[in-house]
Amino acid sequence: MLSAIDLLDLAPRAAAAFVLGAIPFAWLIVRMGKGIDVRTLGSGNVGATNASRAFVGKGARIGVFLTVYLLDASKGFFATQIGWGGESLVSAVVCAACAILGHVFTPFLLFRGGKGVATASGALVALDWRVTVIGLAVFFLVRFTTGHVFFGSLALGLGLAGAAVGVDPANAFGERLPLTILTVLIAAFLFWTHRSNLKKFLSSRQS
After folding, report:
1. Comparing C-alpha atoms, which of 198, 207, 205, 193 is closest to residue 44?
2. Percent of the chain with pLDDT over 90
3. Please, are residues 122 and 75 in contact by the beta-carbon 8 Å criterion?
4. How far apart are CA 175 and CA 77, in angstroms?
5. Residue 106: exposed, middle, or buried by beta-carbon count in 10 A (0-12, 13-18, 19+)?
6. How many CB atoms lie within 10 A of CB 2?
7. 4 and 10 in contact (C-beta within 8 Å)?
8. Is there a contact between 190 and 157 (Cβ–Cβ < 8 Å)?
9. What pLDDT, on a 0 to 100 scale, did the predictor assign at position 142?
10. CB of 184 closer than 8 Å to CB of 136
11. Section 16-42 average pLDDT
12. Cα(169)–Cα(110) distance, rounded to whole angstroms?
């Protein structure tokens, strides 16, 4: 349990993590590069995949995708490091969660942001890089097997949760429990943020 002093220390860290996570890099890059709002394109998502749609040419699109993805992942990584400053896994996990929520519900764009995949990946690197490596391996396997990015994103969430337990099963429900809980919540959250993709896919299969 966190003491009152711990909570007083955590509150500003969590707030800073949320604000950092809320920086809409996809919106900024598309606005600066093309002068348009990324929310008017494709899925309307403020993320790497949708931002890349604003640019012409395979090379440009890949470059924009990687740039936005790495920037969004960096938000999660550095926000989690803010939490580690409190020298507590709980503090780091809370700040990681705040960064992800900041990305998805960014106040800079009327609480309409991205889906949290890259930011969650970066946060998990700061918490346990092994979990992220396994999760990303699952992402790419499913992404290229199915041909759908959103299926890869859903698999990433499940992969992170499985890896959080698998890399250290002896402590997954002990001292590492906050990390285990976070990965399970991330998996559920990614299903929620990709609900429109699932709905469209299921509708297309029925038609």
Report:
1. 193
2. 85
3. yes
4. 21
5. buried
6. 14
7. no
8. yes
9. 95
10. no
11. 96
12. 41
- Tokens 């999760």 label which residue? 135
- Cα dihedral: 9, 15, 18, 23 (round 10): -130
pLDDT tens profile 91-128:
999 999 999 999 999 999 999 999 999 999 999 999 99
Which two structure tokens, joined as six digits, stand for 128? 């346990």
29: closest CA among 7, 54, 10?
Answer: 54
* This prediction's pTM: 0.91
* Lookup: tokens for 156: 């990433």
Q: At what angle do helices 195-206 and 177-193 cross, to 10 degrees?
A: 50
Which is nearest to 103 in space by CA: 23, 28, 195, 191? 23
The encoded tokens of residue 55 equal 């640019």
